[in-house]
Write a structure and sequence with these properties.
Bound molecules: adenosine monophosphate, magnesium ion
CATH topology of the largest domain: Molybdenum Cofactor Biosythetic Enzyme, Chain A
Strand content: 25-35%
Oligomer: single chain
Helix content: 10-25%
Largest sheet: 6 strands, mixed
Distance between the termini: 28 Å
């Protein structure tokens, strides 16, 4: 689908200026927003298969939740005002989880109650077992709430419908389904859920030096590591990865690969987008009819990033009536990873029907000083403790953006703003989450 004209007009291609990170991120966020108006196709799946999928229907409460006033403690169902006098109260009944709701509670009496059991009619609170003193006789037992503790109406009771009323909206369409959402769907009796079909994401690695991972590289060659990495990232982000054979650094090989990829919803190309003599991807995309949203961002790593789309109707493929969105990711694996997280993942999320599209950032305390030349927003491999009291982050030393070993030792990326030449140890900094 065509993005709003404001998106194209943000890119001043005549000046040859690269977009700042914030400009490119805003452009992609607006673009993703416009894509999200087109809802993907749906399918019905078993709840057990739903983890990681995106809800395509509204989930509503099938009944009041909880369906009855429920005790949250083991103890005694009582009237709070009576219990708070600390006078002995007669134990006249007992109710456990699974028993049908029953009552009512007589004046001056309590019922023994277990966690999850329905609170008897007339009771307005539950005193905890730990806070009472038992007395009386085996045939006429009593309890009293030990002073100075008092209790108020509602304590340790969740009223019927307090979490949700029957018919209430619990989750909107577009919610990613993780454990908590699956628990909620299960509580509503949904053995099946309508979810959005996964977008098909073609991953095309380019480069004369690349060999498949099962090959032993000859001198000058390297294994195609980015493809496997991006397939994992695409899967984790809710897409269906489709790995294409490696394309060579020739116009012919690239044209053939782009023709093959035409049925993809999203195309991720790695390599060949820098300014080198054999960086032929951008012209190949142009030949394939791709219109560019931007061709470079002031970031490190990932500066040569290219984003465009083959417009709707430019191919005959039924699968992508909406055209193929295309990213040319710089070939260094850390660059590919960072640009995927920052720019491709939000577009993929929109194509997946998700309402949350990222990228995701967090704050942490910096362990050691970081000094850099300003001019680029940087996303540097870093290790964060994610521990209390405050997560602490430090750079992972790297040998530039081809350092897969450094990336594998990292668990986030330290964000260094464009105008910043020094981040001080102990300061609060932003991190990009994987
Ligand atoms: P390029 O963007 O094509 O100039 O590539 C930049 C660097 O990334 C070069 O050192 C390439 O060898 C390396 N590279 C490109 N593609 C891949 C890939 N699929 N896996 C691993 N490294 C790659
Ligand atoms: Mg290359």
């Amino acid at each position: 689908m065509a993005p709003p004209s404001t998106i194209h007009s943000m890119v001043d291609r005549s000046s040859g200026e690269l977009l700042s990170f914030h400009e490119a991120a805003a452009l992609v966020a607006n673009y993703a927003q416009s894509l999200a108006r087109n809802k993907p196709a749906t399918e019905s799946i078993a709840l057990a298969e739903a983890a990681g999928r995106v809800l395509a229907e509204t989930l509503r409460a099938d009944a009041d939740q909880p369906p009855f006033a429920r005790s949250t403690r083991d103890g005694y169902a009582c009237r709070a005002a009576e219990a708070s006098t600390h006078r002995p109260l007669r134990v006249t009944g007992a109710i456990r989880a699974g028993d049908p709701p029953a009552g009512s509670l007589a004046r001056g009496a309590v019922w023994e109650i277990m966690t999850g059991a329905p609170v008897p009619r007339g009771a307005d609170a539950v005193v905890m077992l730990e806070y009472v003193e038992s007395a009386g006789t085996p045939t006429a037992p009593t309890i009293r709430l030990l002073p100075p503790r008092t209790i108020k109406a509602g304590d340790n009771v969740v009223l019927r419908g307090a979490q949700a009323r029957k018919g209430a909206l619990l989750l909107p369409a577009g919610t990613p389904l993780h454990a908590a959402q699956i628990a909620l769907a299960a509580a509503c009796g949904c053995a099946k859920l309508k979810v959005f079909k996964k977008p098909r994401v073609a991953i095309l690695s380019t480069g004369d030096e690349l060999v498949p991972i099962t090959s032993t590289p000859k001198p000058g060659q390297i294994r195609n590591s980015s493809n496997a990495m991006l397939a994992a990232m695409v899967s984790a982000a809710g897409g269906e990865p489709w790995t294409l054979p490696i394309a060579r650094d020739t116009a012919k090989s690239l044209d053939a690969a782009l023709a093959r990829a035409a049925s993809a919803d999203l195309l991720l190309i790695t390599g060949g987008v820098s300014a080198g003599k054999f960086d032929l991807v951008e012209p190949a995309l142009a030949r394939a009819g791709v219109r560019f949203h931007f061709t470079g961002v002031r970031i490190q790593p990932g500066k040569p990033l290219v984003f465009g789309e083959r417009p709707r109707g430019s191919t005959k493929h039924a699968l992508n009536r909406n055209g193929t969105k295309c990213f040319g990711l710089p070939g260094n694996p850390v660059s590919s990873a960072v640009t995927f997280l920052l720019f491709a993942a939000p577009v993929l999320a929109a194509l997946s029907g998700r309402i949350d599209r990222g990228p995701r950032f967090a704050l942490a305390r910096l362990g050691s000083d970081v000094k850099l030349k300003p001019g680029l927003t940087r996303f540097l491999p870093a290790a964060c403790t994610f521990a209390l009291p405050i997560p602490e982050v430090d750079r992972v030393p790297w040998q530039s953006s081809g350092d897969i070993a450094a990336m594998a030792r990292s668990n986030c990326y330290l964000v260094v703003p464009e105008d910043c030449d020094h981040l001080e140890a102990g300061s609060t900094v932003r991190i990009l989450l994987p």
